[in-house]
Specification:
Elements (H helix, E strand, L loop, with lengths): L1 H34 L2 E2 L12 E2 L3 H13 L6 H23 L3 H17 L6 E3 L12 E3 L2 H22 L5 H24 L2 H21 L8 H18 L11 H6 L1 H16 L12 H7 L3 H24 L3 H19 L8 H6 L2 H69 L1
Antiparallel strand pairs: 1-2, 3-4
Helix pairs in contact: 1-2, 1-7, 2-3, 2-7, 2-8, 3-4, 3-8, 4-5, 5-8, 5-10, 6-7, 6-8, 6-12, 7-8, 11-12, 12-13
């Protein structure tokens, strides 16, 4: 009965989030056009060719907030998460409108994360397999207040910006966040009746519903973008809801489950920071070295690139589910498959480069290499076509020549037969 009751609330949250986002997103497009909140293709990093409204995050936030208020809003931690989400959305909207400096934006994120920590939403412990004197009965290492603050704030700010960095292709951030949210929601659902994670499950499903309702307007070719407001909101909500969830048991290594579910954006963010550090650039500078840029440079196109990343995100979501159920061997196998796909995307076809060059390469270099490969391939293809055409032409000439010779040989015989018949006919007429 309890599971049926919560299942009904989960379905309601999904439907409400989806429907509200579907209704509000067209309105957000009109607002963006009215106030000039438009994303113009002003640099080479952007893949769209025409100005697109970037206020679609309004639809996601409206859908998720309404869906959370109805079935899960009575939970104190959920209400705090919702308030922080609205603050993070406001910060992102300010960036969309005024294009605020990166340091100012980071400072705002740290303040919001600190506010969340002050309300009691924090990472209190990590699991310990090796034993420790400061562990509780479940072998969890209890963190001091200072360490808990640092880890919690870094987690919230890190995940928030990781999801923001994913927002580079039409539908990528919204679809990937929906997959990650549903993965974490399922983990909360299968364990929630025992540890009280059902409100978190409902809230995560509400976020997924908002993303799915927004996705029809954002999938390539996009009619609107979520903007920094939507991207920061989604990253923040996943980060905070994964902290609220009380699923950190002795059998689960700290925050390993949400880390695995968010492995793709976190991996992409780590590689971006490493790449910019090795190039002696600011870690906040923009470049074209993200996963989706590599896929685009390889010639996949927007839709196929997005679907490839969806698949990897889904695999890692399933890995998180398996880890939460202590199926470590199965999880290891799937994680290996996901890492294989990521390495195929990141490592170039010419592996003679050093590791540093592979990490720091910009996809502009890959695009040139791929273009040269394409030209060489096209040249070979045309050579083969020319050779095939020459062979066909030679064969046709040979056939025509043989037919002409045959015709020449048979023609005199035919004339001789005609003369013989004519002569015989004349002789018969004379006899008559």
């Amino acid at each position: 009965m309890i599971n049926n009751y919560f299942l009904q609330l989960i379905i309601e949250a999904l439907i409400i989030g989806f429907c509200v986002a579907m209704v509000v997103t067209p309105f957000s497009i009109r607002v963006a056009n009215r106030f000039g909140i438009i994303d113009k293709p002003k640099d080479s990093r952007r893949v769209h060719k025409k100005p697109i409204p970037r206020f679609g995050g309004m639809g996601i936030v409206a859908g998720a907030t309404v869906a959370m208020l109805i079935p899960a809003g009575m939970n104190q931690n959920i209400r705090v998460a919702m308030l922080g989400g609205l603050l993070m959305y406001g910060l992102g909207v300010a960036d969309d409108i005024m294009d605020i400096k990166p340091l100012t934006k980071f400072a705002g994120q740290f303040l919001i994360a600190s506010f969340v920590f002050s309300t009691g939403i924090k990472i209190r412990f990590i699991s310990n397999y090796f034993g420790a004197t400061n562990a509780d009965a479940n072998a969890n290492v209890i963190l001091s207040t200072g360490v808990a603050y640092i880890i919690t704030v870094i987690w919230i700010v890190g995940v928030t910006n990781a999801v923001n960095l994913m927002d580079g292709l039409d539908g990528l951030a919204a679809g990937s966040t929906a997959i990650m949210s549903l993965s974490l929601a399922y983990i909360a659902y299968i364990h929630g009746a025992l540890v009280g994670a059902m409100p978190v499950c409902i809230a995560l499903v509400a976020v997924a519903g908002g993303c799915l309702g927004f996705l029809p307007y954002n999938f390539a070719p996009a009619k609107t973008f979520m903007g920094d407001g939507g991207a920061l909101y989604l990253g923040y909500m996943i980060a905070v809801l994964s902290v609220i969830s009380p699923l950190k048991r002795a059998t689960v290594i700290g925050a390993i489950v949400p880390i695995l579910a968010l492995a793709v954006p976190l991996f992409d963010t780590f590689m971006a920071m490493l790449r910019r550090t090795l190039k002696h650039e600011s870690i906040m500078s923009a470049d074209k070295g993200h996963l989706h840029h590599h896929l685009m440079a390889a010639g996949f196109g927007q839709r196929r690139s997005v679907l490839v990343i969806y698949g990897i995100v889904a695999i890692m979501g399933e890995v998180a589910v398996l880890i939460s159920r202590e199926l470590y061997k199965d999880a290891f196998f799937l994680a290996t498959v996901a890492m294989l796909y990521l390495s195929i995307i990141m490592v170039p076809r010419r592996p003679k480069k050093s590791l540093k060059k592979i990490i720091t390469q910009d996809v502009t270099e890959l695009e040139k290499e791929n273009f040269i490969d394409y030209l060489n391939m096209e040249r070979e293809r045309r050579k083969e076509e020319a050779a095939t055409e020459a062979e066909k032409k030679a064969a046709a000439e040979t056939e025509n020549k043989a037919a002409a010779e045959t015709k020449t040989k048979t023609k005199p015989k035919t004339r001789a037969k005609v003369k013989t018949k004519t002569k015989a006919k004349t002789q018969n007429e004379k006899k008559d």
